[in-house]
Structure formats: structure tokens, C-alpha cells
Specification:
Order of helices and strands: HHHHHHH
Structural class: mainly alpha
Largest sheet: none
Strand content: under 5%
Distance between the termini: 24 Å
């Protein structure tokens, strides 16, 4: 079965990868990317606000030597590599494996984001619990929630395509002798 890429999926994977790479850069280049660092004003000025909302990105986490921030940033690099691999395989190579690579990428995105939220829940909202709801909803819940909702829809789309391909393969292979 030939894979036909969908514009909205490819657009999400491209745009989200750029955002995620920017985020990984901030996390992996701390303290240089933080307020007062030589790279902050040039690339990561919006993080001045975000680091006060989510302490995983802020000074408290950095001063504690919390490894979670850098660990999730490392996974961001793998996630982006998978997204770019899908885009290459789907649009340039037209490879039938593209949906599997895309599925793997978005399942990773959802899993990583759910882990991020679970970490917050199980530590008693240690990094975002200081916020009021008027801050938390638009600046933490909604933007982070997008990385669960959109990739989940994409996973369903890829999953259906993979399942259809497997069913067709089973039907075409049913009459063949198996070794």
C-alpha cells in the first residue's frame, strides 16, 4: 500500500520539530540560555517568562542539578530526528515505511509529554504549583496539552493506515504457502 501524506500531519511534524529543537537548545545550553546568559537575549528571550511558570526550566531546577530537564531535551532531539525522518521518507523517498516511522515519532511525543505531566503530578506540582489558574491554563496546560492532543490524533491516523496495510497484506498473502 502506498502512503499518501497529509498536509496537516506534515505541517505539525515540521513546525513542532522546530519548536522542540528550540526548546532542547534552551535546556541543553543552560545557564548560557537563561536570563543573564550570553545566548538568552539572542535566542531564548521568551523563556524568561516561561522559566518563572515552570521551574523545570528555571533557576530552581538548574541549581538543584535536576537531570530531568536535560533528559527530556535529549529525547526532544530523538523525537525531532524521527519527525524529520518521516518527512524525508514520506515526501522525498515515498517509502512505505514512512507511516511506521511517523507513528513511532508521535507515540514518543505523547509518551514523553504524559511523563512530563506525570512527573509534575507525582512531585506534588513542585514545578508549576506556585501559579494561579489564570497563568497555568494559558501558559502551561494549553501549550503542553497540544503535544498530547495533536500527536494523539496523528497516531490514530497512522495507526489506521498501518492496520489497513497489515490487513491487505494478510489478504494478499492468505493464498500463498507459508514456510
Amino acid at each position: 500500500m502506498t502512503h499518501s501524506s497529509r498536509f496537516w500531519i506534515s505541517a505539525w511534524l515540521l513546525i513542532s520539530s522546530i519548536v522542540v529543537l528550540w526548546d532542547a537548545g534552551y535546556c541543553l545550553l543552560r545557564p548560557r540560555s537563561m536570563v543573564g546568559g550570553d545566548l538568552h537575549e539572542l535566542f531564548w528571550k521568551p523563556y524568561a517568562l516561561y522559566a518563572t511558570i515552570d521551574y523545570v526550566y528555571g533557576v530552581p531546577s538548574f541549581e538543584r542539578g535536576d537531570g530531568f530537564t536535560s533528559a527530556q531535551a535529549f529525547l526532544n532531539l530523538i523525537e525531532s530526528a524521527l519527525n524529520f525522518a518521516y518527512l524525508y521518507l514520506a515526501h522525498l523517498k515515498r517509502a512505505p515505511i514512512a507511516p511506521l516511522v511517523g507513528f513511532t515519532a508521535v507515540v514518543m511525543t505523547v509518551s514523553k509529554t504524559v511523563l512530563y505531566w506525570a512527573q509534575e503530578y507525582f512531585c506534588g506540582f513542585c514545578a508549576v504549583g506556585h501559579n494561579d489558574w489564570q497563568t497555568l491554563i494559558p501558559l502551561w496546560i494549553v501549550p503542553n496539552g497540544l503535544w498530547i492532543v495533536v500527536p494523539s490524533f496523528i497516531a490514530v491516523a497512522f495507526g489506521r493506515e498501518i492496520a489497513t496495510s497489515l490487513r491487505q497484506s494478510d489478504v494478499t498473502g492468505a493464498g500463498k504457502k507459508r514456510a
